[in-house]
Amino acid sequence: MKSIYLLPLLLIFALVNETSAGAQGDPNSQFIVLLSGSLASNFREIDVPVETGVLRLQFNVKFSGELELKVITPLGNPLNLSEPNVSVTDSKDGRSITLWDPKPGKWKMRVSGSGTFSAFATAQGEIVVCCVQFIDRAGVFAIERFQPTRGVQQQAQAFTSGYSIETIEFQMIDEEGQEIGPIKFRQTDYSNASGFTLFIDIPNLNFRIRARGRDISGKEFQRVINWLIRPQPPDAPGANTENSPQLVPPNQFRQSDREAIVGEQQIIRAEIVSWSDEYLMTERGNPIGIRLKYSMSVPAEGSYSLYPHLYPESINAGVAAALSMRVHRASVDPLPDGMENQDQLFFGARAMFKPGQVYNFTVDLIPNFVNYLDHKKEFCIQRKAYSQQGSRERFERQVTSKLKLRYRFTLTGTNLDRPQPSLTHNTYVPFVWYQSYLKEGAVDCQ
Questions:
Q1: For residues 401-416, b (16+ Cβ closer than 10 Å) or e, as one string?
Q2: Angle, alpha carbons 26-28-33 (nearest 5°)
Q3: Positions of E strands within 51-191
Q4: What residues does each domain of the chain span?
Q5: Smallest Cα–Cα separation from 30: which of 12, 7, 55, 6?
Q6: Are 40 and 114 spatial neighbours (Cβ–Cβ below 8 Å)?
Q7: 29-124: what fold?
Q8: Which residue from 15, 56, 132, 233 has the least number of CB within 10 angstroms?
Q9: pTM, rounded to two decimals
């Protein structure tokens, strides 16, 4: 089968407008519910699960006929529209109710009366599900630029914010919000809790993709991708009647297709069981960076590529550029499968880690203002990189600062990869590092 390579995640997230903008008109909001229907002197209750951390919740209904919208709180009572955190906008053909700082739980939209309606609820919070893309032999296509064929298994990829999600599943729903069927899927890469590979058995109906699950506090969440997918018949001109090719991320072991299942799945994250930090010392006893030590276990056998990120606690553009840290050397014991030597660890290699084994890492990090010349076995100071007007003065202030800094620490694909990073146990002084490099004979990089 042909292989299609995964686009870089940062580029994927640039496409967030495709699913977050639209009827709600707010690029920071996402659909929880999006459906249409009709009533004849009766009512319909629509579940609206709200997770922890939602800043704003909005309920909207557009209708023709004699219809009414009420919002029911998780306690089962109608929402008091006179509360100070509630705003209501009525028109001749609709109603919009906005609620700030909503209580987590299962809310409901109750639409009653007679007529046709379209209803949606949106949330502005930490959880984002977006950027669904279809995989075809001709490439990777945004959801609105590709028309799948009925009866074909179409591969796709979807992305989430990742941090706050504990479990997730994907489903197909019709225009009335009813489930058509589950979607088989798997986490694309165990080093990334945000990416998922979907295997969609394309139905004969128009459909949307819905994601649902639980956040890290156990509360339910739900997101609906607003684009309505309209499958084409197999005999349509240019219709692809073959199953889509296997998606293979670059430099990664292919996770087995049998790992793709239907239903709710827990997000796979490696677990850091302990960690510490200390000054990185030269053979002469000069401190030149940070030595990070941590022990890690994994819940499932698979490919992991784990890269630590350290940057100053008090951050601005100048500090981030010069004083953020990068990997100089690293080692792990025992050596995981797929690695021939320690030098591969953080430089593009991916290794196969196994559960039931604790892996002990030692990672040496140096500040961005220096570079290591491997052919000379010496360091140099990257002063020229900060030679632009204003940058040079800021660079000199930062590298000669005697302030004690703690560093924020995250580790991609682990339980430490979260919005509130951990802080180093020790403090570090940039001027001490700078003086040490001069003592070691470092000169300006050429």
A1: beeebbbbbbbbbbeb
A2: 75
A3: 56-72, 86-91, 94-100, 105-124, 129-136, 139-142, 153-160, 165-173, 179-182, 184-189
A4: 3-16+127-266, 29-124, 271-444
A5: 55
A6: yes
A7: Jelly Rolls (2.60.120)
A8: 233
A9: 0.80
Q: For residue 381, which of 365, 367, 363 has the smallest C-alpha distance?
A: 367
d(Cα 109, Cα 49) in Å, to the nearest integer?
11
Q: Tell me the backbone φ, ψ of residue 121, rounded to 5 degrees.
A: -125, 140
- 3-class secondary-structure state, position 441: coil
Which CATH number applies to 3-16+127-266?
2.60.40
Q: How far apart are CA 177 and CA 127, in angstroms?
A: 20
Backbone angles phi, psi at 311, to 5 degrees: -150, 155
- pLDDT over threshold 50, residue 369: yes
Exposure class string for 85-97: b at 16+ Cβ within 10 A, else e? eeeeeeeeebbbb
Give the closest residue to 364 by CA, choosing from 440, 426, 282, 274: 282
Helix, strand or coil, per DSSP, at residue 104? coil
pLDDT in tens, 384-422: 888 777 778 888 888 888 989 999 988 878 888 776 778
